[in-house]
Amino acid sequence: EHGNTDGSPNLPEGPTGGATIGWAVTITGCGSDPITEGAAVLKHSIHLASVHGNLGGRYDYKMYAIYHPDGEKCAKTLESLGYTLVRRETPV
Q1: What pLDDT is stored for residue 52 in this prediction?
Q2: Mind listing the pLDDT tens digit for each residue in 31-75?
Q3: How many CA atoms lie within 13 A of 33 on its CB side?
């Protein structure tokens, strides 16, 4: 099946009964500017537009931080914000 009768795609159901959308940030290393503040602002905006916010969103969300081992120290700061950390080496 390619979609629902209203034309929307079939998406996996989240804990609220609606679909869950995955959002990801990537971290390749730790630079001079901390990433925590930007990641927090991004998550807050997504939260407001989700079923949990006040903008009438229809979908739940899950946050991921995909990081290279060189960026582990910076990635760890996102755990407390609710990001799921995914460690990956550089692709071949």
Answers
A1: 93
A2: 877 788 899 999 999 999 999 998 989 899 999 999 999 999 999
A3: 5
What sign has the CA pseudo-torsion 55, 59, 63, 64?
negative
Report which of 49, 85, 47 is spatially closest to residue 69, judged by C-alpha positions.
Answer: 85
User: Could you give the CA distance from residue 41 to residue 45 in angstroms, rounded to a whole number?
Assistant: 6
- 67, HSE (Cβ side, Cα atoms, 13 Å): 21
pTM of structure: 0.76
Contact 84, 45 (CB under 8 A): no
CA nearest neighbour of 25 among 79, 59, 63, 61: 63
Q: Report d(CA 25, CA 2) in Å as an integer.
A: 28
DSSP secondary structure of 35-71 = SHHHHHHHHHHHHHHSTTSSS----EEEEEEEE-GGG
